Amino acid sequence: MGTRTRFGRGGTFAVALSVASALVLSACSDDGDSADDAAGKNLDGRGAISFAMGKNDLDIIRPIVDSWNKSHADEKVEIVELPGEADDARERLVQSLQAGNDEFDVMALDVTWTAEFAANGWLEPLTGDLALDTAGLLPATVESATYRDVLYAGPQNTNAQLLYYRKDIVGDKAPENWAALTDSCAKAKAKKVDCLVTQLKQYEGLTVNSSQFIHSWGGQVVGSDGKTPEVNSTKSKEGLTALVDAYKKGDIPKKATGFTEEETNLSFVGGESAYAYNWPYMYTNAGDAESKVKGKFGVAAIVGPDGAGASTLGGYNDGINVHSKAKATAHDFIAYIQSAENQKSFAEASFPPVLASIYDDKSLVKEFPYLPALKDALENAKPRPVTPYYAGVSKAIQDNVYAALNGSKTVDQAAADIDEAIKVATK
Questions:
Q1: pLDDT over 90 percentage in the chain
Q2: CA 139, 140, 146 angle in degrees (round to 5)?
Q3: Under a CB-based contact definition with an 8 Å cutoff, are residues 316 and 89 in contact?
Q4: How far is CA 406 from the centre of its chain?
Q5: Which of 318-346 are b and which e, b meaning 16 or more Cβ less than 10 Å from the residue's Cβ?
Q6: pLDDT tens digits, residue range 323-352?
Q7: Cα 386 to the center of its chain, rounded Å
Q8: What is the C-alpha radius of gyration for the chain, rounded to an integer number of angstroms?
Q9: How many helices (H) and strands (E) does the chain have?
Q10: Residues 6+ positions from 95 with CB-CB distance below 8 Å
Q11: Calpha distance 155→91 (Å, rounded)
Q12: Rounded to an integer, what distance in angstroms lies between the CA atom of residue 332 and that of residue 80?
């Protein structure tokens, strides 16, 4: 899988909470067009374009850009390197888009930004002449790029958490559902190790985990309109209750409220837990020579009450700036990134592809044995809340689920308070 932790990120977790997400629909471009006026223009425009992306993952994209440029002498792509920190990258894009600039033609957007950018009128809808063929893409990735039933970006790469399990403690097969997992915690306790470790520190990872439990139990955070809160529903609360109960019973250790991905990684790879929820990057670490679990672990999709659970989606979506003068070229470049050859190169570089067929490539599966489990996870995955108010929604989840975990609120109170906070954030 490669030595980097790329599969653990695949689009960033950080959210620019300090940047207001109020809608700014009146920005003007250099030629005086507002965002509304720019939409639908230059759909057949061709020429050189720019592609903006955070610098941390650009090494994966550069070979694709080089390949494109060799066969598109009149439509070359120039890479614009954005800051590596997600907050800074997002702020750079927002400032330019609010000013109505066309300096970025195609933008690699964290999946959590897509709805916000669409709601602000900054993205050209991928409909009509700009429609993309999404039939071969993993459905959850398309959902993450869709706002109010309109596709606003082309899924570029993706990610999903996996269930890691110790075969020497719980057996050769992964638990089939949540009850089977928690029932097997007795085996972990008998071996004097923790049962399940995951990320419950009060940061974006807690939003990821909370969303996984909510979605796995059939609930959701917000409705399809991106603003109606739904955490206070029966199914959503059942998912949160499963998480909180596991923590209170000790199936998830108390120290997990201080865990990010890295603490989770150190715990499982160090042989201190029987199970872990974490991103695919940990597969390589667990198989390294110095790992305490080398040759003793397996991976599967995370679990819910009735089978595979709904892992929280990561990754990038590629959007076209509504002010771009070369939208036809921008569209073709996005489609080029989604081609089988380029999506396979993503898999080879430990960058989860969005094209479903890549996960069935026998040569890749031999090299990366976790791919079938990752495909299973991605086929059941759900995006984090698709909302233009994501920063406020995420904070509401973090604050209140953390309170439920530490016992200062009941699940019912936490769910009600999340819904109320979402109402405030989306006004």
A1: 89
A2: 90
A3: no
A4: 26
A5: bbbbbbbbbbbbbbbbbebbbeeebbbbb
A6: 999 999 999 999 999 999 999 999 999 899
A7: 11
A8: 21
A9: 18, 11
A10: none
A11: 21
A12: 18
Question: What amino acid occupies position 368?
Answer: F
Q: What span, in angstroms and rounded, lies between the C-alpha atoms of 392 and 97?
A: 21
**pLDDT tens profile 22-57:** 443 333 444 446 777 888 899 999 999 999 999 999
**What is each CA distance from 260 to 40, 245, 249, 276, 278, in whole angstroms?**
43, 20, 21, 12, 10
CA distance 330 to 102: 12
Question: How many whole angstroms from its chain centre is CA 252?
Answer: 23
Whether the CB-CB separation of 100 and 323 falls below 8 Å is answered with: yes
Tokens of 42: 């230059």
Tokens at 412, concatenated: 């019912």
Q: Of 281, 122, 120, 309, whose CA–CA distance to 210 is shortest?
A: 309
Say yes or no to pLDDT of 13 above 90.
no
Beta strands in 67-193 (DSSP E): 77-82, 106-110, 146-147, 150-151, 153-159, 162-166
Structure tokens at 122: 């900054």
**Residue 95, amino acid:** Q
Smallest CA-to-CA distance from 94 within 205, 190, 18, 163 is with 18
Tell me the angle at which helices 411-425 and 234-249 cross, rounded to the nearest 10 degrees: 130
- The residue among 258, 263, 285 whose CA lies nearest residue 273 is 263
Kind of pairing, strands 273-278 and 194-197? parallel
- Kind and range of the H or E run holding 340: helix 340-348
253-277 burial, b if ≥16 CB within 10 A, otherwise e?
A: beebbebebebbbebbbebbbbbbb
Contact between residue 258 and residue 201 where contact means Cβ atoms under 8 Å apart: yes
Alpha-carbon span 159 to 93, nearest angstrom: 23
Spatial distance between the Cα atoms of 51 and 57, rounded to a whole number of angstroms: 13
The CA distance from 427 to 417, in Å, is: 16
Element (H, E) at 52: strand 49-54
Average pLDDT over residues 165-170: 98
| 201 C-beta neighbours (distance < 10 Å), count | 18
Integer Cα distance of 88 and 94 in angstroms: 10
In the sheet with 49-54, reading across from the earlier edge strand, the strands are 77-82, 49-54, 106-110, 314-320, 153-159
**CA atoms of 101 and 92, how far apart (whole Å):** 12
